[in-house]
Amino acid sequence: MILRMLSLLLKPLSLMSLSATHCLGSLLGRLMFVFMPQSKRLIINNLKQSHLFNDELSLKQAVRLNIIESGKSILETFAIWQKSEQEVLTLIQQTQGWSDVDTAVQAGKGVIFLTPHLGCFEITSIYYGSLHPITVLFRAPKMKWILPFIEKGRTRTGVTLAEANTSGVRKLMQALKKGEAIGILPDQIPSAGEGEWAPFFGKSAYTMTLASKLANKTGAAVIIVFGERLPKGKGFIVHCKRLEDGAIATPALLNKAIEQQIQQHPTQYLWNYPRYKVRRHALDNDTIIQDTSNN
Fold it and tell me: For residue 59, what are the domain limits?
């Protein structure tokens, strides 16, 4: 019943053009900036911490642009979840670095896609899943009633979801063993016991160890990817870059790779994400990976 109500409520977004969706998203971002001071402070503080904008004018402009991009991100996500797969795929204008993906797939050792909270991170798995199978790790929301809506929106042809728990990590390992791809949000805050403290733009952030351990354990190709949001609702460009072997061998190296990605389009990063906090409830990834490797 709730799933149906949400679908009906958000149905208009699926009927709107991306340009109109982003126009409304820009307005939403501005309203958030006014009525959500805590989010505003977080964006300002995180952008200052990044040192990507070293004078007050450029920082002020970056904050303004980022809040607009954040609003676009929210509404485009709901729109993508409501649109058909074919409609979503038409939004992708081009890909860059896809030869790296083809080479990795042909090698047959599995592919680990790292998708930071940059640009449109919902669209990349849908695009890859239209071509090859991929298992995507996700963290279930605290509001359980919205979970069916998220699962319905993200599950597409070739895309399998794996919840961030013991069973989900096993799914990731099984997919890699079959030479398939997996998707991970590498800058998502791990639960206590699942990460290590590592520098992120000059400040210690609790960083997941799972991505590094999976890469070290399986020898799978590691590709960092993001969907660049084009201006005026013109669509997206999917950028892919294969990282060298050992490039994410530690959480510190993982954060360095994420930083380099963000620096390409810093105003499209989700700076209102509380990157420097710690979650509760530990999950022993070492044990999980050891167990699944013996199955």
Answer: 2-293
Residue 190's closest CA among 165, 172, 222, 155? 165
Range in 93-97, 221-225, 269-273, 290-294 with the lowest mean pLDDT: 290-294
CA distance to 21, 41, 70, 94, 266, per residue, from 33 (Å) = 18, 9, 10, 32, 18
Question: Does an H or E element contain 114, and which?
Answer: strand 111-114
CATH number of domain containing 91:
3.40.1130
User: What is the reported pLDDT for 282?
Assistant: 38
Q: Count helices and strands (H / E) in the chain.
A: 12, 9
| 90 pLDDT higher than 90 | yes
Q: Which residues pair with 111 in a beta bridge?
A: 181, 221
Task: Provide the number of structural domains found in the chain.
Answer: 1
**Tokens read off for 83:** 């649109």
Q: Which whole-number Å values give the CA distances from 97 to 35, 76, 118, 141, 253, in the listed order?
A: 40, 24, 17, 33, 21
Residue given tokens 């993001």 in the structure block: 226
Average pLDDT, integer, range 115-136: 96
User: How many CB atoms within 10 Å of residue 257?
Assistant: 20
pLDDT in tens, 184-205: 999 999 988 889 999 999 999 9
